[in-house]
Structure formats: C-alpha cells, structure tokens
Write a structure and sequence with these properties.
five-stranded parallel β-sheet; about 40% helix; alpha/beta; about 525 residues; 20 helices; 23 strands
Length: about 525
C-alpha cells in the first residue's frame, strides 16, 4: 500500500453498528480487527464518522426496519452536504442487495457474509472515491458458489478471517474476558420461516485444530469464557485426513494448509464430532473457565454430548434449544423436523444426564393458520419443560423464505399480540420459580459488568465513590446474578473473573446475592 493511501486511510474513522445474532457480533469483531490493523480508527458516534458500516440481520423485520431508517436519515444528511461512505454488511444485502442499491443510492457498497474477507479492498475503493458500477456492487451480494456444501473450510479464505485473531498479535491483545468462536457456518435445515440458509449458505464445519488453536490464542489474550457458535451447533462433524509423523503421532493443522510442526509421512482419516470438539477444548485449553455453545437443534442431539457436558466441569450446564411451537401441526408446517414428543424426550434425557441443566428456548407465535388450540399446546409445552426463559417473537413474513410463498399470514395482529404477552407472562411465572430454587445456594458467577442499576444511581445521586456498586454476571446455567461490592475500584477488578455468590433473593429475571469468597484477578 502506498504512503498516500496509508495517509488517506489513517484519516478515516469508522462507526460500525451491529444488528441481530451472536454470529453477526462475531463478524463485526473480526471485521473491526481486520480494518484496525490496516490503519482505520473506530468511533462511537455515527455523526463523527467518515465511514459508516451496518452489519445487518434479515431474520426479524424489526431489525431490518431499524437499519433502513438509519440509511434514510443518512441519505438526507448526504443531500445536505455531508461526505460519508456508507457500507452495508451481513444478511440483508445478501438477500436484497440489488433492490437496496436501486432504492438507496447513498449506499456505496454491500458485502454479504460470504464476502467479508474481501471487505478491506472493497472499502479501500470506496474511501478512495473509486465508484463501483452497479454490476460490481451487486456482485458483492455474495458469491453463492463459495457457500456450496462441497466447499472445504480448510480451503476457504473466510477461514483466514476467523483465524485473524490467532495470527495478528495486535488483534489478540484487544480481546476481552469473553469471546465468541465460530465452529460452523450456514445451515441445512430450511425451516420455512427462516432466511439463514439463503443468506449464510449451506452448513460448513471448520477444522477442529483451527478451532482449538483459536480458543488457545484467545485464552492467552485473557479470555476466561468462550461461546462456540453455530446455527445448529450440535451437528458439528468434521471429516479430515490426519497427517502422521514418523512416530505415528498426529500432526496438528491450524488453518488452510498450515501444519503446526514436523513433516507428515502418512495420512489417515478421522471424524471429529461435536462431543469430541468440546472434550478437546476443555482438555487442551485449561485456561478457559467457562465454555458455552449456542444454538442447539433438538433433533440428533446425542447422549455423547450430554455426557461430555456432565463430565467436564468447565462446560456450562446450559442449553439453548429452540422449540418454536408446542403444536405438532405447526412444527410440521415450519419444517422443524421433530415432534413435540421428540422434543420432550430430548429434554428428559438432558435432565437425566445433567440434573442441574438449565434450558432456554425460542417461541414463535402467530404462525400461519395457528389456532387457539395450537397456542394452548405451546403453553402446555412451556409448562412441561419449565424453561429458565424463552425468547418469544410473533411471526412476520420474511422475503426469501418458503413460508411467505406457501402460507398466507392469516393470524390477526391482535391474536399475535395477545398470545405473545400471555406466553411472556406464563414464562415469567415459571422463570420466577426456577430462580427461587437457587435461594440459599452458593453459585459461581462470571462477572460481566457493572449493572445499569448502579450506573443510573451513580448519575442521579452523584455518590459513585461513597455508594455501593452493583455487579452483574451469569451462573453456569446462564442465570443473571447481581451482587454489591464496596467501590468502583473493587468492581473493576472483579469484571472478567469467576466469583462465588450466596443467593439471598430472586425474581423472574435474576438472582441477587452476596459475594462470599475471595477472588483473584
């Protein structure tokens, strides 16, 4: 890169806003590290930025509406004379890139999830004022051939993007105490309401050695908690040729054609399952105190995974397993691939093998043709499972899904709203009971932050130094727990550590307690 280009980039600040799931949050983190290493700076204010990037979600209508509203506002600012480069990343441009570019000329470029490794060169063109043709811009909607099921993750340059935290020392040092690690891209399920298979492509599993090395690198940079990500994380399965050295020992590979050491003299084939992967990370990266994973699919969830969770104490006793509906008829229309009975059988197995496991899920209300009887069946499922919490959404037709073409959105807004509020109320009652059962117990809490309650009190009362500060964190079962400490200085030392808390009170949303053990930072 020439000095003039470097100077041009160094003068550019970027505002990056992320919408949607943990996968998008990870993509944004990787993008930010990638661009930061090239000389870009990042700011917290959209109004102060020279470049504005939106990493978008296409799963929920509300997330789409938010980002399009921001694009509209920026269009007005550009008309009034503001000079700013706008880029749209993620699932929304993957699905509707051509339409977006036609309707919003203020968007300089788009970049789908499968093209994020090309973002630096795309952004450089835009920053230097090299206007891309509509054809070029649409091409960056995503090269679908790169997302075919036959694509090997080891030969995919997107794998190098995931490994950027391993090979870039400056990136590693910016890692916090909690980190995401992707193990699978894409999804093969094709639920009728979901756009993910069309926006993120077919299921591709990353090489296990690369995943373990990434976890190790993050741990060395200070990560205490790692969450493994995949659309159907428990379906992870990687078949690979293993290189052997002259002693018949396996030679690890940590990326595309990157052998860790020694010269291979032979090969054999090996299959790594999700249970194998969990066991390897737990055994080989002992610095990680908390290992989580999301999101699980209720079908084909083997006992081998549950047994590894039970036997490995640093793997959290928490499962996020969306049920979506308690009606077999609706589940079939959703193409979920399991029945209510099969879902309940899985929950029973999980609780038999891991008695203290906590379950969270997702529920969609108001799916086409849903009746009061279907809704009551969902309520019955919630009562039987006794989720610690559910993320509840009302159905909205999404372009690019099977459901929008096959089923009429015939459930009234009133019924959707009534069912959603009723399920939230039911879930809150059950969640209150789940939390209350912890009163009197001592739990391990991974401390995440100073709670918003403390911040608000400090701002109003102006007593930050003299008043007590409340910290917020999560138990192994993903229950939020808050507790007080004496000062902001003490609180900051605890963030990113695991402490023991005696639970003294509870509510539907959280546990309250008292710290009862010394801690080390």
């Amino acid at each position: 890169m020439s000095n003039s280009v470097e100077q041009h980039i160094e003068e550019r600040s970027i505002f990056l806003e992320t919408f949607g799931c943990q996968m998008n949050e990870l993509d944004s983190e990787l993008v930010q590290g990638q661009l930061f290493s090239l000389g870009y700076s990042f700011c917290d204010s959209r109004s102060d930025a020279d470049v504005i990037l939106f990493n978008t979600c296409s799963v929920r209508e509300q997330a789409e509406n938010k980002v399009l509203s921001r694009i509209g506002e920026l269009g007005v600012e550009i008309t009034e004379g503001r000079q700013v480069v706008i880029g749209m990343l993620g699932c929304l441009p993957e699905r509707e890139g051509k339409r977006l570019l036609g309707k919003y000329p203020q968007i300089a470029f788009i970049c789908g999830p499968s093209e994020l490794d090309r973002l630096p060169s795309i952004l450089q063109q835009a920053v230097l004022g090299e206007k891309m043709s509509t054809t070029d811009r649409v091409a960056l909607q995503g090269n679908r051939s790169r997302r075919l099921a036959a694509l090997s993750a080891a030969d995919d340059t997107l794998e190098l993007l995931d490994l950027s935290r391993v090979f870039d020392p400056d990136f590693r040092t910016s890692t916090g105490s909690s980190a995401y690690v992707r193990i699978t891209r894409g999804c093969n399920k094709f639920c009728t309401y979901c756009v993910v298979p069309n926006t993120r492509g077919a299921e591709i599993h990353r090489p296990p050695d690369a995943i373990v090395e990434e976890c190790r690198s993050l741990a060395q940079s200070g990560a205490v908690e790692i969450t493994l990500l995949g659309q159907t994380v428990n379906h992870y399965r990687y078949t690979h040729n293993v290189a052997l050295n002259s002693d018949g020992e396996e030679v690890p590979q940590i990326g595309p054609s990157i052998t860790a050491f020694s010269k291979p003299v032979d090969e054999t084939q090996r299959v790594t399952t999700f249970a194998n992967l969990l066991q390897r990370i737990h055994g080989e990266v002992s610095e990680i105190e908390r290992l989580r994973f999301v999101t699980s699919y209720p079908k084909d969830f083997g006992d081998d995974i549950l047994e590894v969770m039970r036997d490995c104490p640093r793997i959290c006793n928490y499962l996020h397993v969306p049920a979506q509906s308690g009606s077999n008829r609706i589940l079939k229309m959703m193409n979920r691939g399991y029945t209510v009975e099969e879902y309940l059988e899985f929950i029973e197995r999980a609780r038999k093998i891991i008695p203290d496991v906590e379950i969270a899920g997702d529920i969609i209300v108001g799916f086409p043709t849903e009746t009061e009887e279907d809704y009551e069946a969902t309520c019955d499922l919630i009562r039987k499972v006794r989720f610690k919490n559910n993320f509840v959404f009302h159905y909205s037709p999404r372009p690019g899904t099977v459901a929008i073409d096959r089923f009429k959105d015939d459930v009234s807004k009133e019924d959707k709203r009534r069912w959603l509020n009723s399920i939230l109320e039911l879930g809150g009652t059950i969640s209150g009971d789940v939390h209350k059962a912890y009163e009197g117990q001592t739990v391990d809490v991974f401390v995440e932050r100073i709670s918003p309650k403390s911040t608000k009190q400090a701002q109003v009362e102006l007593m930050w130094e003299s008043g007590r500060v409340q910290l917020s964190g999560r138990t192994q079962g993903d229950l939020i727990c808050v507790f007080d400490v004496g000062s902001e200085e003490e609180a900051n030392k605890m963030i990113g550590t695991v402490v023991h808390v005696e639970v003294t009170n509870s509510g539907p949303l959280l546990l309250e307690g008292t710290i009862c053990c010394n801690y080390e930072k």
